[in-house]
Structures are given as C-alpha cells and as structure tokens.
Design brief:
This protein has 15 helices and no strands. With 353 residues, the chain is mainly α. It folds into two domains: 14-78, Receptor-associated Protein (Up-down Bundle), CATH 1.20.81.30; 109-353, Up-down Bundle (Receptor-associated Protein). Helix 6 (95-152) crosses helix 7 (158-172) and helix 7 packs across helix 15.
Amino acid sequence: MAKTTFFFANRITKKDRVFVVRQLSIMLSSGIPILNALNLLSDQSDKASLQAILRVITKDIENGHPFSEAAARHPQLFDDVTLAMLKTGEASGQMNTVLSDMAVQLDRDLDFSGKVRNALLYPGVVVLVMIIVGIIMTTVIIPRLSGLFEESAVQLPWNTRLLIGISNLIMTYWYVLVIILIGGIYALRHYLSTTIGRARLYRLQTRIPVVKDLIMNTYLVRFSRLLAMLVHSGVPITEGLRIVGSAMANRLWQQSLTTVQSEVEHGIPLSTALSRHDIFPSQLIQMVSVGEQTGKLDSVLENLANYYEEQTNTSIKSVTALLEPTILVVVALAVGFVVVSVILPIYGISDQF
C-alpha cells in the first residue's frame, strides 16, 4: 500500500473532515463511483495537505484496498468514529446512506463546538486586551510619570507607590518574569497531560457551580451522539463504547468507558454498567435502560444528545451572563485603581504652583 512519506504544511481541521464526508455523500448518492468522487474532491480542495491525502487514498483503492483500509492510514482526517462508520457502510453496501448520516452528525458536532468556543471567546479577548494594556502602562506610561513625580518631590499615596513598584519590578526583572511565565506554562501543560492532572482538572471544573453544568453537558452530548450514530449504523455496542472512549478528550471519561465496555462484554446491561460511574446522571441511565428494553437504544441516545445539547446552550447563556458583568467589574476596578493612582499625585503637583 502506498504511504504518505512527507509532512503537510497545512493542518487538517474538523471543517475539512466535514467537507470530505459531506461531498462524498452527495457524490455517491448521485451515482458517482468512489474513485471519481475522490478525484473530484481533490480537485475541489484548495488545501495542499488535503489534496495529497485524497490522492494517496485514491492510489491505495486503485491498488485493491478497501476505502476504509486506505482511509485508516490518515488518522488526521479519518478518526476512529469515521472509520467505524466507513467499515459499516462497506459491509452493508449502504456507503452513501452512512456517509449522509455521518455528515449530518459532523455538522451538528462542528456547530456545537463553535457555540462552546464562542462562549469563551469574549472573556478571552477582554483578558488579552487587559494584559496588553497593563504591559504598556507598566513599561511605558508609569516609568515616565514616575520621573515626573520624583522631580516634583510630591508625597505619593500608597497605591501610586505600589503601581510604581510593580512597574520597576517588571522593568528590572522582566527576563526573570518571562522565564517564570514560560516555565510555569510548560509545567502546567505537562501536568495536565498526565492522567492525574487531567482528572484533577476535570474534578475542579465540575465543582465550579456554573461551569460544572457546561462541562458535564458537553461530554454527555458527545457521548450520546457518537454512540447513537455508531449503534444506528450497526456497530456492536462494545466496539461503539471503545470508539467513543477513544474519542473523549478527558482521561476520566476514557477510563470509565473502558470499564463500561469490559462489563458489557461480560454480559452486564449497558444501563447497569453506566450506573456504576458518577459521571453518568440518573436520567441518562434510566433512558438507556428504556432503550435496551424497547430495542431502540440508538433513538434514545439521539434524543438524549438533543436534550443535553439544549442544556448546554442554556449553560452557555448562564456562563456568558455571569462572565460579562464580572469582567466589566474587574476592568472597572483595574482602570479605577490606575486612574486614581495617577491623578492624585498630579493634583498634588498642581497644588505646588
């Protein structure tokens, strides 16, 4: 089988995955053979890395390898969930239907991720602007005012002295602060990449009142929707649990789903296995039990995903409603502190004349 032996300049994104799956679904539904569809996709894409992957896959299929096997060599474009769906489509002969269902789910997943990301964008931008303004104040404006205050010999209030002290500290030991900052970020990233670090971060997130609901519902949406899609496509429940577990970014969820998979393999009902883990709410467990009894587990899981997505949207609004006034208050306090620290000495200087 042909191999991709070079590095791609452009990173493959979720949007690229959605584009490939959606376009393949449309083309196959129109009766276009898979090889022709891949060639057309390669021509349509303006990203060199995506074109290269599609050409390699086309070459592998021409050499007699199944589409799913050729796609498996490119995990940056086809994750475990997508590969499982492709294998199911090949086995059932309904590749266009499977791709169509997958395109819908990927679109919803992309839209959902965008909502969560946008909710955090505003506070992130405000914090970044505050940091930039703070750096300019402490390295440019305050040092100039400090010289003016020294020449006037005016008595400085405590807040002005504190501001000047912070400015002098940053100006004198900026390289030490940069080293500490970079080292701290590196150490934190390394710690959060460990099993213990991720587990503690998740537990911390789930203890913050408003953020807790957002984090929990985000994972519940992903779990329910992915498992619903896999079960609906005919993937065995144990294999579906393995795939969903590998798709979870959180180590605690990965470990829990691995345990659930093992228990289900030993004949324990899915609802019972889920009930042994605190991350799954009782409502989900009860609904899964109903799905098992009625033989409509995929429909129940999809309904759960829709429900938790609505709950996540509500959580996003709650977080945004809380963050915006909080940030405004913090900004107002910071600006007020700086203004008062600067204005008071200036008034003192003017009184000397």
